[in-house]
C-alpha cells in the first residue's frame, strides 16, 4: 500500500502529481482543489486559507506533511502542523531566519557572494527607482514596486524593506539540502508579468533548466552550501536572483518546494518530491545528476482578462487537452463552477524547444491561442 503524503499550500497540483509519480498517496489541502489535482490525489479546498489548514489536516490519515508556495509566511500554521505530524520541510525557526533580508544580506556579504544592499529605512534612499519596495511577507512577487515618486508606503510600515535594484535576467536556482550541505540542481529563467498580483514583478512562469558556465556553476554551488550550513535548510529550496555579467545576485530564498520544480522532472528526469522527502526524512542528498536533456522546458500562467465562471464543459475540454502527449500540456485546471476574478490565474501552459528563446516564443503563442479560445470577443 502506498505511503500517505499530506501536501499543503496555496496550489499543490505540481507537488501532488510528482508525489503520485514517486509512488505516494497524496492527500492535499489548498485554495483551489483543481480538477487535475483531483485526478491524482485526494484534495480539499480550504477556506479560510491558511487559518483552517491545521483543522483540515487533522482529519487526514497518518503521514508526513510537506508544504508549497507562500506557506513560509504563516509560521504559526506550520508550527501547529508540525505538532501533529512529521514536517517534511524547514521548521518555523529556520524560516524566520532565512526570510530575514538583512540577515541574509549580511551572511552573503561576509561570504563574498553577490547580494544587493537592503535596508528597512527609506528616508535616505533616492526616489528614482534604483531601489525596490518589497513586502517582508509575500509570494509570487506580490507588492514589489520601484521606490520612486509614485510609490507609497502603506500604513503598516514595519511590513516592508527596500532592496537595491539589479538590472539583468531574473532567474531562480534550485537546490536540495540536508545535514548542512546543498546539491545544486540547476537554474531557470523566470517569466514576470505586470499587474497580475499588484505589481510589475509577479511570477508568471519559468523556463529551463539553463546551461551554466563552469564559473557560474561553482558560484551557485557555493551559494547553496553557504545557505544550507548557515540556516540549517533541509529539502528542496529555491533562490531567486538576477543574472548580470555572469554573476548571480541573490534576491531572496524560497525555503520550500518551488513552482519551477516540475521543470526538472521534464528536463533532467529527477522527481523533485522524491528528492525533497529523502533529504527531509532521511538526510540523503542525490549523487550525480542525469545529463540535461536536449530540450528546454517552460511553463507560463494564463490569466483572466475579465471575470470567468468555469462551466463543466470547459473543465472537461481542458482535461482532455492536458492529456495529449507524454507530458501534460495544460495544468492547474479549475474545477467546474470556479469563479476566477480578472487578473487571476486560469491555468498553466507548457512548451518545450531547443533554446530558452524558442520556449518563451512558444509559451507566448500558447497564451495568445488560449486567450482567443476562452475569450473570443
Short description:
This protein has 377 residues and is an alpha+beta fold.
Write up this protein.
Helix content is 31%, strand content 29%. The protein is α+β, with helices and mostly antiparallel strands and 377 residues long. It folds into three domains: 4-88, Rossmann fold; 96-282, ATP-grasp fold, B domain (D-amino Acid Aminotransferase, Chain A, domain 1), CATH 3.30.470; 296-374, Aldehyde Oxidoreductase, domain 3. Strands 13-12-9-10-11-14-18-16 form an eight-stranded antiparallel sheet, with helices on both faces. A four-stranded parallel sheet has the order 3-2-1-4. Helix 4 (75-84) runs antiparallel to helix 5 (92-98). The N and C termini lie far apart (50 Å).
Mean pLDDT: 92
Q: How large is the radius of gyration?
A: 20 Å
CATH architectural name of the largest domain: 2-Layer Sandwich
**Could you give the distance between the termini?**
50 Å
Strand content: 25-35%
CATH topological fold name of the largest domain: D-amino Acid Aminotransferase, Chain A, domain 1
The CATH superfamily of the largest domain turns out to be: ATP-grasp fold, B domain
Oligomer category? single chain
Q: Could you say which structural class the secondary elements and strand pairing correspond to?
A: alpha+beta
CATH top level label of the largest domain:
Alpha Beta
Secondary-structure element series: EHEHEHEHHHEEEEEEEHEEHHEEHEEEH
**Overall geometric form:** globular
- Arrangement of strands in the largest sheet: 13-12-9-10-11-14-18-16
Determine the fraction of residues in helical runs and give it as a percent range: 25-40%
How many strands in all?
18
Uncertain spans:
none
User: Treating each run of at least 4 consecutive H or I residues as one helix, how many helices?
Assistant: 11
Return the domain count: 3
Main sheet specs:
8 strands, antiparallel
